[in-house]
Structure formats: structure tokens, C-alpha cells
Amino acid sequence: MVILEEAEKILSYGETCDHCLGRFFGKRSFGLTNEERGRALRISLFLRDHLPYRPPGQCWICGDLFSRVDEWADRVIEATRGIEFERFVIGTRVPPLMAESEEIVWSDLSLAHAEPLKSEMNREVGKAVAKKTRKTADPKQPEVVAILNLAEEFVEVQVNPLFFYGRYRKLERGIPQTHWHCRACQGKGCEACNFTGKQYQDSVEELIGRPVTRLFLAENAILHGSGREDIDALMVGTGRPFVMEVVSPRVRVRDLAEVEDAVNREAEGRVSVTLERWSTREEVEIIKSTKGYKKYRILVEIDGSYSQEELQSAIRALKGAKISQRTPIRVAHRRADRVRERQVLDISITGEENSMVILEVTGEAGLYIKELISGDQGRTEPSLSGLLGRSARVCSLDVVQVQGHNEGE
Q1: Which residues have a Cβ under 8 Å from the Cβ of 315 and sit 6 or more positions away?
Q2: CATH code of the domain covering residue 88
Q3: Cβ(365)–Cβ(289) under 8 Å?
Q4: Interior CA angle at 228 toward 226 and 233, to 5°?
Q5: Confidence grade of residue 407 (pLDDT, cut at 50, 70, 90)
Q6: Range of the domain at 170
Q7: Helical (H) or strand (E) element with 380
Q8: pTM of the predicted model, to two decimals?
Q9: Which of 46, 127, 303, 404 is at 20 to 30 A from 201, Cα to Cα?
Q10: How much is the mean pLDDT over the chain?
């Protein structure tokens, strides 16, 4: 039989364990382990040649690695002690000499049904860990990845992140959405930042992330927001959608109501959150690419005298208009200089305050609201300032609504 001839050629390279012999035929037949395949082939060869059975010596390919499966499983259990998880997957870093040894046999004999050593090691150690811990080996959605470093004899543990979805309201001006490194030292620490490495001492990300990191015993917490508001703007109303990524959490089981309460107590008066559900990495990409509308409430100061009819006429001209905006002067140092076109979906006058006009503006994502009012030295057309023929500027800006990716128009 051809398969026995192939097995005989494999054994001619040197002492080969049943696992390695069987793995060279790992994709043939079903319901057998590689060890069972290898032992069956070895016995068949002894029967064919009418020779007494002799077990193999130390394997020249793996060094009898598979006799240590239980030992490696115990190492995984010890390395993951203190980490909450139910689903795991095993990975293996195979030493170059070991990988090269099996590849020589594959190549020389043109074997088409072989399974790599690392695949069998992943599976066998995974089965042993599952049996000892009653946890689930799940290669598709693992919470923990345990990597067997065979050459250096240790287990590296990677804890996959957690994600949850919610909305935040920013109740204090002067807070950026995410952590900013100091412009002078790029985060290294200098006199300009009082050696903190930070341009601003707090951010929405950090105000939410600090209690989250503590509750989940995590390394860090990263905020992925649906767009962002200016540092001097409030985010009020229904709040801005976000997904929080909890990095390397040692605790995975928490009630989101408990997390929400902890954040709101610690950030009281500055940031508040409503946490709605657990999320996924896929939703991070969705939320960051969503181009929903945004509604703003702005306080506008206009120079000189003007009539209500002039103001109403300018407002009517902006409602529904397509606005051509060259990258604003205030952000030109960090964004590409190009012209964008965005639409004003709605705009209305809602009142007055200290001789200033209160406007509500709903615009497409990416519409620069401050420049819609000021004109930005002609870089935004049309603008309220241009239509009135006099200078106008935003004195305060509040974001009151951000369309979520799962909301209709």
C-alpha cells in the first residue's frame, strides 16, 4: 500500500514518535488522533514485515514534546490564574529547528495530507486545559490566548479586550475627548506640562476610563467616539455615542449598571454616561465610520446693527444649503488642506441672550459650525457673516444631539 510505503520512508529519517508519524497523515480519515494514526501505521509495518513490535525511541522531530502535554496544560492554568475567563485558545511558537525538521519530510516526500506540529499542540493542550478547568476552547471568540513558547519554556498570556457601548455627556468646557500628549515634549514630561506629559490634565476618555480600569483590573481603557466635539464645547442632550475598549481586563464579569454608577460618581459635574450594552471590536469600526447628523445650540455675537429681517433672510439662505469649506485656519496645522462640501440640514433662531442670538443648527457630520458663522476669512461659503455683511462669531457651542449608527434618519 502506498500509505505504508510513505510511512516507511518517514521512519527512515530517524526515530519518530506516533504523534509525528500520524500527523504526516493528519488529514486522512476521521475520528482518530494523530497518535492513534501513527501507532496504527507502525503496527501495520511490523505486521507486514513479520517483525516483533518495538516502540520508538526519542523523536528526532519533536523531542517527544507530546509526552509533556499535561505539563504544558498545567503551565497554562498557572499563567492564567487570577484572570476571569470562560473561553480560551492555545497558540504555539515552534522552535525553528523543530519546524524545519517536519518541513524537510513534507517537502522531500511531497506529503499532501500533513498537519503542522503547532496545530496538534494547540489542540492537545487545549483539550487538556479544558478537561482540567472545565473552561471552553474557542478559537473564534476567545477571551484569553495562551501562547506556548516551546524554545524558552514559558507561557505568554494575552487577555482580549472587553467592549461596551454607551453615550456620554460632557458638562464642563475645556476638556478634550481623548488624552493629548504635551505638544512641547510629546508625552515625555517637561516644564511646560509640569512633567505630566499631558497637554490637558483630564479628558473624557480618562474621566470614564479611570474607574473602568480599576473595576476591571485592566491595563487601560480606550474611548472610541462617534465623532468629536471641540474642547470648548459641551456635549449635552442625548449624549455622544461611544464604545469603550477595556484593555487586558483581569475581571470580565461586571454589571454595567455598577460601572455606570462608578463613572458618574467619580466624574460628577464634568462627565456623565449612560451605558447601554456590551459591544464588539466590529462595532468600533462601525461607530468611527458613521456619518450621522449632529445638532448644535450656539450663542452668536454679531458686530454692528442689523434688522431682524436681515437676520431671518440670512438664516433662510443657510437652511438646506450646501456649504463649501476649506480646512479651517484653526485646525490647518493638523489636517489636510482641502475643500469639503457639507449640508446645513436645519437652522433656526431660538432666542436671545445678552444681546446675542441663540441658534440651533443641524448639519451633516463634518460641518464646521464655528466657520459656518464666521466665514473663516472667506474659506467657508456661504456663511452667516458673509450673508449679513458683518463679522459674526460663536461665543459658546453645545452639541445637543449626535445620530447613532443604529438610529434612523
Answers
A1: 347, 348, 349, 359, 384
A2: 3.30.2300.10
A3: no
A4: 135
A5: low
A6: 164-289
A7: strand 380-381
A8: 0.83
A9: 404
A10: 93
